Amino acid sequence: MSDAQAPETWHAALHRLQRAGTPHVLATQVTSAGSTPREPGARMVITNDATFDTLGGGTFEWQTIAAARAQLKEQRYGFSLEAFSLGGRSGQCCGGFVNILLEAFPGASTHVAVFGAGHVGQEIVKLSVPLPWQLHWYDSRRNVFNEHDRQQPRLSCHELHSAKENTSELPPNTHALVLTHNHDEDYALITALIERDDLASIGLIGSDSKWASFQGRLKRDGYSTEQIERVRSPIGRIHTTKLSNKTPYAIALTVVTELLWLTDTPSPPDTRGLEPQALRTLFDDSPTTMS
């Protein structure tokens, strides 16, 4: 038997990409007439740089891929319908006709990195999982993440090996929260994060005295005032008054609420369903090529 890995199927790719928050398109052959490479129900998944499974190959598949990638590039998410006369628009010799439904998914537009899987970190992640954020969760302790954590959508769990190395992996515009079990680890992470000028925000858990100590240490280590002022500490202080309830859940609520304000963006347009004309064409007994 060959040791070569089998190609990833469309449903496996769809599951993985949706968990990872990666923009992608699901292309489904919904109707066919005459001779066509595959039957209705055939599917493939398309990203900006890869495809998974096939609609039968040929020119019309390449045109489908091009149409899907155009939707991703132009951020036209939701449903659209592409029609191909196999001999007309696609230049193939089958002579049949297919309608392809494209479902474009935007993926996660917001990335949040949580450094620390203690009580507050766990509550922050629990509250954040239902939100449309891609979560990157780090901790230096072994076996701190359970199987349930690893199976959550849009949540990736990592062992924290090196502050410098792990923070360099974060996507640009990530919102970073530092709340590990160790002050020295917190400091190493803060120094690594403020050296990046492309992060959306940096937050540090702790008291006013902890942050005052960190500020003095950062100044002595040569960091500029501008770099130091990028750190928000303590995190979750929505009002000027201090929160008297300091349970992990209460702190997590204020932290996630603060992140909601920091990540607030306009809701995407309602893209449910297809235009009536597209549906009429789809179910017409005598289909005609759509532009």
UniProtKB/TrEMBL annotation:
Domain XdhC- CoxI: 18-76
A Pfam family the protein falls into: XdhC_CoxI
InterPro entries linked: MoCofactor_Util/Proc, Xanthine_DH_XdhC, XdhC_CoxI, XdhC_Rossmann_dom
Gene3D superfamilies: NAD(P)-binding Rossmann-like Domain
Domain XdhC Rossmann, first and last residues per copy: 112-259
PANTHER family documented for this protein: ALDEHYDE OXIDOREDUCTASE MOLYBDENUM COFACTOR ASSEMBLY PROTEIN, XANTHINE DEHYDROGENASE SUBUNIT A-RELATED
Name of the protein in question: Xanthine dehydrogenase accessory protein XdhC
Species this chain originates from: Vreelandella nigrificans
Origin organism lineage: Bacteria, Pseudomonadati, Pseudomonadota, Gammaproteobacteria, Oceanospirillales
Gene: xdhC
